[in-house]
Amino acid sequence: MTARGIETYFDIEPVEDAMLETPVPVVDLDVAERNIRRWQARCDQLGLANRPHVKTHKLTGLARFQMDVGARGICVQKLGEAEVMADAGISDILMTFNVVGAPKLKRLAALARRTSISLVADNAEVVAGIGAAGRSAGREIDILVECETGAGRNGVQSPLKARELALLIDRTEGARYSGLMTYPATGTRTAAAAILTEARDLIADAGLETHVVSTGGSPEMWSDEGLGVATEYRAGTYVYFDRSLIATGACTHSDCALMVRTTVVSVPTEDRAILDAGSKALTSDLIGLQDFGCVPDLEDARVYKLNEEHGYLDISGTDRKPKVGDVLDVLPNHACPVSNLFDRVALSQGGKLLGLTRVDARGLVW
Amino acid sequence: MTARGIETYFDIEPVEDAMLETPVPVVDLDVAERNIRRWQARCDQLGLANRPHVKTHKLTGLARFQMDVGARGICVQKLGEAEVMADAGISDILMTFNVVGAPKLKRLAALARRTSISLVADNAEVVAGIGAAGRSAGREIDILVECETGAGRNGVQSPLKARELALLIDRTEGARYSGLMTYPATGTRTAAAAILTEARDLIADAGLETHVVSTGGSPEMWSDEGLGVATEYRAGTYVYFDRSLIATGACTHSDCALMVRTTVVSVPTEDRAILDAGSKALTSDLIGLQDFGCVPDLEDARVYKLNEEHGYLDISGTDRKPKVGDVLDVLPNHACPVSNLFDRVALSQGGKLLGLTRVDARGLVW
Fold first, then answer.
1. pLDDT for A364 beyond 60
2. Are residues B324 and A126, on separate chains, in Cβ contact within 8 Å?
3. Which of B156, B257, B236 has its CA nearest to residue B198?
4. Do B292 and B339 touch, CB atoms closer than 8 A?
5. In the structure, what pLDDT confidence band is assigned to residue B2 with cuts at 50, 70 and 90?
6. Which of A183, B195, B204, B285 could form a disulfide with B334 if both were Cys (CB 3.0 to 4.6 A apart)?
7. Rounded Cα distance, B76 and B84, in Å
8. A152–B contact, CB cutoff 8 A
9. Contact B247, B288 (CB under 8 A)
10. Is there a contact between B280 and A340 if contact means CB atoms under 8 Å apart?
11. Quick check: A214 pLDDT over 90?
12. Which of A277, A336, A332 is nearest to A55 (CA)?
C-alpha cells in the first residue's frame, strides 16, 4: 500500500508555536518519514522482513505508517502495547518478551482471538502458559525460541537447548514452533549467526521447519554482518535515532527526529543555565555517554547534571550565553524512555509545528 | 483536623492479589502513614511549618492526608501538579520552580484566582512574569527569593542579590515579597543558614519583612543543623523513602513504603534471573549507588543492569534461586521518578492488597 501523507496518520490537537509548553518532545515528521523509508528500502533490498519495534515511539500513527510503507508487522515489548496496536488495526504483532502469570495469559488469549499475535519463549513455563492461552483462544499461537547469542540477557543457552524447546513447543497443544529470535549484543552478529544457523539446522534435523529467524537492533542496522541466516529484522530507535546512535555511527545529528524542547528558567551564574527538563523529561540514561543529552544549537554547552525537573547546562565554554526564556532543543541520549514519560508529544512538519498527539501506547498498560 | 483512615483518601479499583499485574509500584499505606505522622510530629516539636513536596507521590489522596495530619500546605514542582492539587481542594500551594513563558503565566493567573499559590524567583524576568500574572488575577502573588546556598543549582548568588530581588518584588505590582527559599545540598545546612540569616537581616534593614524562610530535603530531615533560621521545611521523599535514603541514614528498610512488584520471567543461567522491570519501571537513577535497586527478600541478589523492560538480577551469590513466575519486590533507588512512570499504583494496608489508584498528578500536565 502506498502510504498517505504521514501527518494524516495522527489525531492532532493544534497548538501555536508560542503556546507550546515545555518540556515536551517534538517529533520532526519529515525526518521520521525519511528514516522509515530509508530503512524499509534497505530491508527490501536485503530481502529481509521489516518488523519495527514500536516501543520507541508508542504511537499508533507511526506504527500504521511503518506498516503502509512496507513493514511485515510490528514488534512490541508488552501486552498493553499489543492491545493498543491491535485496536489501531495492526494485525501482525510479535511480542519479544516472555509472557508470565495468569492475568497476562488471559489477556493474551483475548488478543489471540482477534489478531495474529506471536511470542517468544526461552523456558518451558512460558511455553506452557502460551499453549494454555492458545487453547483458550481456540487456535495455535506461534512461538519463536529466544536464543542467547552474547547479550547475556534472556535466551536458551545453546543450539541444543533451542532444539529441545522447539520440540517442546511442537508437542504443546495451542502453540506452534515458528522460528528463532535473538537480540544480539553490539559486535556479536557473526557469532550470533553461527548459533542461529546451528540451531536452525538441528531443529530441521528433528523434523521442524524454522520459518522465521528474527534479529534486530538499531546500533548495527547498516551492517551486513551475520545477516545471512536472518529472515526478519527488528529495529526500533531508528525512527527517531538519538545521541547514543550518533555515538555508534548509526546516524548523524540530522537524522535525529525527536528533540526535547526546553526553556531556560534561570541563568544564576555566567557558567550555568538551568533548563526546565530534568530526569523526568530526559531520563537518567547515560548508556555509556558523558552528559545527559546535548544542545545542537549550542554545541559548546553541556547538559552535565539532572535533578527531577532541573537540567544543568554548563555554558562556560560558549560565547552565546542563553537568557531566561530562551527555548533550547535538547537531543536526548536515548529516545525510547523519553517517549515513555510523556502522555503527549508535539509533531512538526516542514519546519512548522502541527500540534500535540497522544502517546497512545504508553501508561496504564503493562 | 483529625485525619480519617488513610485508605479513605483514595479512589481504589479493587484487585485481587493474584490478578495484580507486574511491574507495578505497591505503596504500603501503613508505612506511609507512619512516615507522615512521625515527620509531622517532628515539625510540630520544632515549631516548623511542614510543607510536604508532592512530586514524590503525585497522589491527591496522600496530599490531602498530609494536610489533615497537620501540614501547613504543600509544595509542587510544576503547574500541572498545582492545578490537580487545587482541584482536590488543597488551597496553600508553593511552587518551587521558576515560572517562565506566556502559556504558563496564563495558567498561573487562572490558578491565582481560585487558590493561594505562592512561587519562587531568582531573577528579574521571573518576577516580572509573576507580577503580570498577579495583576491579571487581580491579586498579589507571594514570591520567595530562591537563594543559592551550596547546591549549585538555581538561586541568587549572595545575600545582597537576595535583597536586590526582594526590593524588586516589592516594587512589582501584582507580586509580594514573602520570604526566602533554598534547597540546601547535603552537608551545607549550617552554611545555608548563615546565608539565609544574612539575607533576612539585610532585607529587614531595607524595610521588608521576611515571613517565610523555607528549607528542605529528605536526606537530612532528622538533623537539627542550621534549622534556627527556618520557618518551614519541605520534604518529599520521606513519605515513601527509598534505597538512596537508606544510604544517607535517613531511614531503614522497614520505613520504605514503595516497592516495585516484579515477576521473574526467565532464569537463563544459574547466575542470572530476568525481571519484568527495567528502566521504564525502575528508572536509570543511580544517585551515587551501585545497582539499580535491591530485592530485600533476596539480600544476596543484585539488580546489576537494566534494559527498558528487562531487569538483570545476579543470583550467583544466593542459594535461594528464584524460579520463573516468582514475584519479587524491588526497592528502587529513587522513589520519585518511579511514581512519574506509572499511571496507577497499587495500595496495600494491613498486609492486604486494596487495589489500584490513579497517580492523578502525573502525565499530561507540565
1. no
2. yes
3. B156
4. no
5. low
6. B285
7. 10
8. yes
9. yes
10. yes
11. yes
12. A336
Q: Are A70 and A277 in contact (CB under 8 A)?
A: no
- In Å, how far are A240, B52, B341, B353 from B56, measured between CA atoms? 30, 9, 12, 21
Q: Provide the number of CB pairs (under 8 Å) joining chain A to chain B.
A: 164
CB contact, 8 Å: B132 with chain A? no
Give the 3-state secondary structure of residue A285: coil
- Interval B79-89 mean pLDDT: 96
* Interface contact B283-A283, CB threshold 8 A: yes
State residue B241's pLDDT score. 98
Residue type, A4: R
pLDDT digits (tens, 9 = 90+) for A290-333: 999 999 999 999 999 999 999 999 999 999 999 999 999 999 99
Instruction: pLDDT band for B365, please (50, 70, 90 cuts).
Output: low
Please list, in sequence order, all residues whose beta carbon lies within 8 angstroms of the beta carbon of residue B342, skipping any fewer than 6 positions away: B24, B25, B281, B359, B362
Q: What percent of chain A has pLDDT over 90?
A: 97
- Residue B265 to residue A102, Cβ atoms within 8 A: no
Put simply, whether A154 touches B (Cβ < 8 Å) is yes
Joined grid coordinates for residue B177:
515579597
Residue B149: name the closest of B48, B224, B221, B229 by CA: B229
Nearest to A103 among B19, B312, B323 (CB): B19
Residue type present at position B51: R
Q: Which secondary-structure segment (H or E) carries A171?
A: helix A159-171
Residue at grid coordinates 535533578 = A307
Average pLDDT over residues B61-78: 98
Query: Which residue on chain A is closest to B23 by alpha carbon?
Result: A366
Closest-CA distance, B237 to chain A, in angstroms, reads 12
CA distance B201 to B182: 16
pLDDT digits (tens, 9 = 90+) for A53-71: 999 999 999 999 999 999 9
Specify the pLDDT at position A363. Answer: 74
Contact B212, B29 (CB under 8 A): no
- Whether the CB-CB separation of A116 and A91 falls below 8 Å is answered with yes
Distance CA B366, CA B80 (A): 5
> What does the block give as the cell for B363?
502525565
CATH numbers and ranges of domains, chain A = 30-239 (3.20.20.10)
Name which of A280, A338, A344 to mutate to probe chain B: the one with the most chain B Cβ atoms within 10 A of its Cβ: A280
Q: Which helix (H) or strand (E) holds B156?
A: none
Closest CA to B350 of B65, B6, B13, B62: B6
| CA-wise closest residue to B221 among B29, B27, B55, B48 | B48
The closest alpha carbon to B279, from A236, A283, A366, belongs to A283
Kindly tell me if the per-residue pLDDT of B109 is higher than 80: yes
Contact B103 A364 (CB under 8 A): no
B282: Cβ contacts below 8 Å, ≥ 6 apart: B260, B292, B293, B303, B306, B311, B330, B332, B333, B338
Rg (CA), chain B: 22
Closest chain A residue by Cα to residue B183: A307
Say which of A78, A274, A343 has its CB closest to residue B154: A274
pLDDT > 70? residue A191: yes
ipTM computed for the complex: 0.97
The per-residue pLDDT for range B262-289, each reduced to its tens digit, is: 999 999 999 999 999 999 999 999 999 9
Residues B39-48 have pLDDT tens digits of: 999 999 999 9
H/E element holding A357? Answer: strand A352-358
pLDDT band of residue B363 (cuts 50, 70, 90) is confident
On the question of pLDDT at A358 being above 70, the answer is: yes
Q: Which residues of B18-27 are buried (b: 16+ CB within 10 A; e: fewer)?
A: eebbbbbbbb
